[in-house]
Amino acid sequence: MLSTLISTNTSAEIKKVFGDYEIHYIVLNSTFLEPKVAKAYDLKRSKNLGYVSISVLKNDKSTDLPKAVNADLSLVMSNLIGQKKTIELKRVEESGAIYYLNTFTFDNEDIYNFYLTATPEDHKRTYDFRFSQKMYAEDFNQNK
Asked: How far apart, in whole angstroms, are the C-alpha atoms of residue 42 and residue 52?
């Protein structure tokens, strides 16, 4: 069900590769979430709410396919004047996939910097990186 969380016209997922691990992430306006799926995962939709989803995968050499793994994650968001906010991530597991997700408030047309640290389960090394996203308020029909 979560794989259909985002409208089909959105393909903004990005990944970072660290050896055998891949960290996939997406940040967008919560209005792109499908209404009934957002409701199922207790996520609000609003023109000034952003949505973030992160997954950690480990490459499985026996199948040549990456496998979802649990991870300890920390995500901090800051605006261009340095105001910081920690985004608490909810863990969701379904059909062999593991997602860490939540929503956050933002101001229209502001650029936000995100600092992510990830420690895959049963792995001693922590991976960290930064990325930026300009956010736009989007109007939508809440009864959709």
From this structure: 14
Quote the CA–CA distance of 131 and 121 in Å, as a whole number: 23
User: What is the CATH T-level fold of the domain 2-134, as seen in this structure?
Assistant: Immunoglobulin-like (2.60.40)
Distance CA 74, CA 55 (A): 12
Q: 35-56 burial string, b = 16+ CB within 10 Å, else e?
A: eeebeebebebeebbbbbbbbb
Write down the pTM of the prediction.
0.86
* Tens of pLDDT, residues 19-43: 999 999 999 999 999 999 899 899 9
Dmax (CA) of the chain: 47
Rounded distance, CA 144 to CA 125, Å?
44
CB 32 within 8 A of CB 137: no
Query: Smallest Cα–Cα separation from 113: which of 129, 101, 102, 99?
Result: 129
Q: Which is it for strands 97-105 and 71-79: parallel, antiparallel or unpaired?
A: unpaired
Tally of residues, the chain: 144
